[in-house]
Design brief:
The complex is a heterodimer of chains A (337) and B (741).
Chain A lengths: L4 E6 L11 E2 L2 E2 L4 H4 L5 H14 L4 H12 L2 E4 L7 H12 L4 H6 L11 E4 L4 H10 L6 E5 L9 H13 L4 E5 L2 H5 L3 H15 L3 E5 L8 H13 L4 E3 L11 H18 L4 E3 L7 H14 L12 E3 L2 H14 L12
Helix pairs in contact in A: 2-11, 3-12, 3-13, 4-6, 7-9, 9-10, 10-11, 11-12
Chain B lengths: L10 H7 L10 H9 L3 E2 L1 E3 L2 E3 L6 E5 L6 E6 L3 H18 L4 H17 L1 H12 L3 H24 L1 H4 L3 E3 L2 E5 L6 H14 L2 E6 L4 H11 L8 E5 L5 H6 L3 E8 L1 H10 L6 E6 L3 E5 L5 H12 L22 E4 L16 E7 L2 H9 L6 E5 L3 H10 L4 E4 L11 E2 L8 E2 L1 H6 L2 E3 L42 E3 L2 E3 L6 E5 L5 E6 L3 H20 L2 H17 L1 H10 L4 H21 L5 E3 L8 E7 L2 E5 L7 H12 L3 E5 L6 H13 L5 E3 L4 H10 L5 E4 L3 H10 L7 E3 L10 H4 L2 H6 L1 E7 L5
Parallel strand pairs in B: 1-5, 7-8, 7-10, 8-9, 10-11, 12-15, 13-14, 15-16, 16-31, 26-27, 26-29, 27-28, 29-30
Antiparallel strand pairs in B: 2-3, 4-5, 6-19, 17-18, 20-21, 22-23, 24-25, 25-31
Helix pairs in contact in B: 2-5, 4-6, 4-8, 5-6, 5-9, 6-8, 13-14, 17-19, 17-21, 18-19, 19-20, 22-23
The chains are: A alpha/beta (337), B alpha/beta (741).
């Protein structure tokens, strides 16, 4: 026996949007894109629960997916005690994320597997650029900016911070948005600020951190995502890693749906970067599966998907070690970052 | 899922394609269990395997590979009889145990399932082709929750369900494609309240047999759960076994209808849970993405076996999910039940229109409403004539929440308090009497009305009794333009009453339908006030009513007491109507679930001949208090007191709310039982009449309550005003309101 269902839908569905224009690839603000948005919290939570449990990959599939996940990582260090030495270590790990012999065993040693980027504070950009050059690779350096993580500094200094980081050689800028504009519903002001960030970035990629743990509701997450994309972000990113709630599946689902809506409205593919709290290889697989389910395979490339993480890589390497050798690795078996 | 046989692509290749791979799960455990039975499954009866000889057997196959897993014996009538006998024997002990002991046993079974869950999920997955994940992560935990919830109910039974007793042996029939959960939903409440169960499962369903074995291996109380496998055609055989008090059937609508007809007059209760359709109302104020997920959930709902679509060969048993859009309700395709996941989308313009379209089908199972506007969502949620309504969710289930339906989806319930009442009867209910009239001709029962001739002059005190059919708020001449004489206890003519017929019933049902929206819209308080006013009017009419009753041989003192008791009944039901429905707490849900008690709609009542006033009022009062509109056929021998009451009804109650049609009882019963727009029918009359009503109710599957010719003590509160009446006078709806921002 089957399950016929009667969906009854309205004819005047508001979803496919109004008349909007794309000027030089960047959109004007049309608040109708966000004004009627509805996000149902409990329904999104249920979807989040399901999507984590629905798919699993094993054996070679798991190994291949994990190696792919490595190529999505923005290998990050954002600590008060960062110095040139640990940034240098991090950069070498970015270049050689998995032990060569393990890659050989998987016949993947010629695939040039590196992390997608290295992500540091603005003051460490020079160190990172130097170290990566020394390692002989062109992995991009991403810098956080605009008063990371709180964003509570003057707009002028925030913009200046971006310019300086770009000058130092950062080719990707992870900016934080001004949460107060979201919480007070000043969407146009938010749009204007992000537009200015965009200009300040110049050629560099703009990754906009929404700090979703501090936006109050999923509806706000959707609206902020849409505004950030309309203002010209190349990526939207869940969180700084410094909020109490970081990258969660429900928030991600809402952001991914906004990305999909934006793509349907404009034809532009915007990237997605979850960050904060993604520590295990299993988590990474779940994130890949989520992207595959919600946006499709087209988004599974470093240009459109990143994972912001610091300790994730070592867990992935541990899993690969296990896959190849059938043993669980000791702490000292794998080089540290 | 079974392991894929194609060669595994190398990691290199997968790195580029990022495709999903097989996630094999070993079925060794299930196969080992089948080996313990020598790949030859029988039935599980009385704590033992029953493998009679000389029976046909059918193969049990892996639906994906087609591999033969085991052969399964097909039961015959003797096997069914053996199972029922075991259940009857077990009943004596089980039903008299303290609730706490039964609770303990159910908890032990839950633990048993927990210990052997891998075996359960691999076996179920292997045989049905469902994904392991689905069975493991949802069905198995839910099965344990069901046992635990019902253990709690058993524990508090003596206190919470005082005045009710277990029905006895329950026969459960489940459809060919189903999850073992469907069985758990029904056996848990039955066992909890003290019934024992015989489950007839389709051939090749090992999981229910395994569950029965797990229950049997608890040692104590073998025989409370017996599982036999055989074709659905054994259903009537199961039902006809002496001792079976109730049959619960779930399956296709037409099969349920046929079973309803077959079992008419057999003296047992039948509950039907039919069809698997569900409905989604998606408004412009919805979170559309979440609603789409809801559609997917609904397509793969647990109501039936779900075939997972994937990249499988076209000759596989997997149906691809299908979407049909812009299908007008009139299209034949919109009305057929199909055996595959099908989504039919059709547009609507306003919420009103949505309700009209949604309620304009014979289905009454479940629906979800997707709207972020609270007012709109509640309007739709309350307006849908469905058993379950989810707001902004679909397919949620919980043991504490009743799940069921109305209209042609069958009005049986499982889960929550309603699930318990399915297996309870008021204490002291007489055991099943075989009352089947084999030679009752359904085609001619009550078809012709005997002619009535003048029977002499009307005698007796004036004023003359009211004359006419009370329809639409006034007395009207009958369509047939003829009358029937009513004799008093001395054989003298008391008066004439109108001879009602099919057209009069049609008119009365129409009038009742017109009055329904107004009456449902009244608050329970307003309804109570009107019932109170009617009670006061009856009080004023006491002497006249008593005199009428006296003429029919009732002693004056008794007659006065009957009037007085009738007055009390009206007042009591008015008060009870104000305390209805409640909120349920669900462990995993943030937000409430409302258990609403809604009117049945137009309720037809055939009053008994005895207690002409009291029985009439005792049936009328709960029906009205719960918001129904009614068409009544009063006592055949003494209809005049009821007509007398109508004189007050005419001035006090809205027109059409109460309609009283006099005439030949069999004929009027026939007209009402066959009327598709009568939503429920209570019949108190002959054995044959009861059988006919049960048979005819298969038409629109209206819930019926028949007395099978047995008298009822209307003057006793337990039978004349007990909770059973309130339970039958309204239907449940579960309204899920998940919250969060």
């Amino acid at each position: 026996m089957g399950v016929p269902i009667f969906i009854t839908a309205v004819t005047n569905c508001c979803w496919i949007g109004a008349d909007n224009c794309v000027i030089l690839g960047i959109l004007g603000t049309d608040l109708s894109w966000i004004s009627k948005v509805q996000v149902n919290h409990p329904a999104v939570l249920r979807r989040a629960q399901q999507v984590q449990a629905r798919r699993t990959v094993k054996k070679e599939w798991q190994a291949a997916w994990l190696l792919k996940a490595v190529t999505f990582i923005d290998l990050t260090t954002l600590s008060g005690d960062d110095t040139s030495s640990n940034v240098q270590r991090l950069c070498y790990k970015a270049k050689y994320p998995i032990r060569e012999d393990l890659l050989k065993a998987l016949n993947m040693h010629d695939k040039d597997i590196t992390t997608a980027a290295v992500c540091v504070y603005p003051a460490r950009v020079c160190d990172a650029v130097r170290a990566l050059k020394a390692a002989g690779c062109n992995i991009p350096v991403a810098s956080v900016a605009t008063g990371f993580p709180a964003g509570q500094t003057h707009l002028k200094t925030r913009l200046e911070e971006i310019r300086l980081a770009v000058e130092d050689g950062a080719s990707e800028i992870d900016v934080v948005i001004n949460r107060s504009l979201v919480l007070t519903g000043q969407w146009e002001a938010l749009y204007d600020e992000i537009r200015q960030f965009r200009k300040a970035c110049g050629e560099a990629h703009l990754k906009t951190i929404l700090a979703t743990g501090e936006l109050g509701s999923l509806t706000n997450v959707y609206k902020a995502s849409m505004i950030a994309m309309m203002a010209g972000s190349d990526f939207i990113k869940t969180s700084t890693g410094k909020e109490t709630v970081n990258a969660t599946f429900p928030v991600a689902i809402v952001m991914l749906r906004a990305i999909r809506d934006f793509f349907w409205k404009t034809g532009n593919k915007i990237g997605f970067k979850p960050a904060g709290g993604i520590r295990s290889a299993k988590d990474a697989l779940a994130w890949l599966s989520l992207i595959k389910e919600e946006l499709g395979d087209e988004w599974l490339k470093p240009e459109l998907f990143r994972i912001g993480a610091s300790t994730l890589l070592s867990d992935i390497e541990r899993q690969i070690y296990h896959h190849v050798t059938g043993r669980y690795a000791a702490y000292h078996d794998l080089p540290m970052s | 899922m079974a392991a894929a046989t194609r060669t595994a692509p190398r990691a290199r290749e997968i790195f580029t394609t990022l495709e999903y791979g097989p996630a094999p799960e070993s079925h060794a455990c299930a196969l080992a269990w089948l080996d313990t039975q020598d790949r030859h499954l029988g039935h599980y009866v009385n704590g033992k395997w029953l493998k009679p000889e000389h029976r046909n057997s059918v193969p049990c196959q892996d639906p994906i590979t087609g591999e033969n897993l085991a052969s399964c014996l097909q039961a015959q009538a003797e096997d069914v009889a053996a199972a029922v006998e075991a259940a009857r024997t077990a009943l004596e002990n089980w039903s008299t145990l303290p609730g706490a002991r039964r609770a303990q046993h159910l908890t032990r079974l839950a633990k048993m399932i927990q210990k052997h869950q891998r075996l359960l999920w691999t076996l179920e997955s292997l045989v049905t082709g469902r994904a392991v994940r689905e069975v493991r992560d949802r069905d198995v935990p839910l099965a344990q929750q069901l046992l635990q919830y019902h253990a709690v109910q058993a524990h508090t039974q003596e206190e919470a369900l005082a005045g009710w007793e277990p029905m006895g042996v329950i026969g459960l029939i489940v459809p060919p494609t189903f999850s073992f959960l469907e069985m758990m939903w029904r056996i848990c409440p039955a066992l909890a309240v003290g019934c024992t169960v015989v489950v007839l499962v389709p051939p090749a369903s090992p999981a229910p047999l395994l569950l029965a074995q797990l229950a049997g291996e608890l040692g104590s109380f073998p025989g409370i759960l017996n599982v036999i496998s055989g074709p659905t055609s054994l259903g009537p055989v199961l039902a006809s076994q002496p001792g079976v008090q109730k049959v619960a059937f779930c399956g296709a609508v037409e099969e349920g209808r046929a079973l309803r007809r077959t079992l008419a007059g057999q003296g047992l209760e039948l509950s039907l849970a039919l069809g698997a359709e569900s409905l989604l109302l998606l408004t412009e104020a919805a979170d559309v993405d979440s609603a789409v997920e809801g559609v997917v959930d609904a397509t793969w709902s647990d109501r039936s076996q779900v075939f997972q679509a994937g990249d499988v060969p076209s000759d596989s048993p997997f149906y691809p999910p299908t979407l049909i859009s812009d299908l007008p309700p009139a299209s034949p395709c919109a009305q057929t039940e199909v055996p595959w996941p099908l989504v039919v989308a059709s547009p609507f313009r306003t919420a009103k229109e949505a309700l009209a379209v949604a309620n304009g089908t014979p289905r009454g199972g479940s629906a979800s409403v997707w709207s972020e506007r609270l007012g709109q969502a509640l309007e739709l949620g309350y307006g849908l004539r469905m058993g379950i309504v989810w707001i902004n969710a679909h397919g949620l289930r919980d043991p504490a929440v009743p799940t069921g339906g109305c209209k042609e989806s069958g009005s049986s319930w499982h889960g929550g308090p309603d699930g318990l009442y399915e297996y309870l009867q008021p204490s002291g209910t007489p055991a099943r009497q075989p009352s089947l009239s084999e030679n009752l001709n359904y085609d001619t029962f009550g078809l012709a009305v005997p002619s009535t001739l003048p029977a002499g002059p009307e005698t007796g005190p004036s004023p003359a009794p009211p004359y006419g059919l009370f329809v639409g708020g006034r007395f009207q001449a009958p369509g047939a333009r003829s009358s029937r004489p009513i004799q008093d206890s001395h054989g003298n003519l008391h008066g004439y009453v109108a001879e009602g017929g099919a057209k009069d019933i049609r008119g009365a049902v129409e009038a009742a339908h017109q009055a329904a929206p107004g009456w449902v819209g009244q608050s329970p308080g307003a309804r109570a006030a009107l019932l109170g006013a009617l009670a006061a009017a009856l009080e004023r009419r006491e002497s006249a009513l008593a005199a009428r009753l006296e003429r029919h041989g009732v002693e004056l003192k008794v007659a006065k007491a009957e009037v007085e008791l009738s007055v009390r009944r009206l007042r009591a039901w008015g008060a009870r109507a104000q305390a209805q429905g409640h909120t349920l707490q669900v462990a995993e849900l943030r937000g409430p679930v409302l258990r609403l008690r809604e009117p049945l709609g137009v309720l037809a009542i055939v009053c008994p001949d005895e207690w002409p006033l009291l029985a009439f009022v005792s049936l009328l009062a709960p029906a009205l208090a719960h918001g129904n509109t009614v068409v009544l056929v009063p006592s055949g021998t003494c209809p005049i007191p009821a007509l007398e009451v109508c004189q007050d009804v005419a001035t006090l109650l809205p027109a059409g709310l109460v309609n009283v049609v006099t005439g030949d009882r069999d004929h009027l019963t026939r007209c009402m039982a066959l009327h598709q727009d009568v939503q429920a029918l209570w019949y108190f009359g002959s054995v044959q009449g009861s059988q006919f009503v049960e048979w005819a109710s298969a038409g629109n599957l209206k819930p019926v309550w028949v007395n099978r010719g047995l008298p009822r003590a209307w003057d006793q509160d337990a039978e004349g005003a007990g909770p059973e009446l309130g339970l039958r006078a309204a239907q449940t709806k579960a309204l899920w309101l998940p919250m969060g921002d």
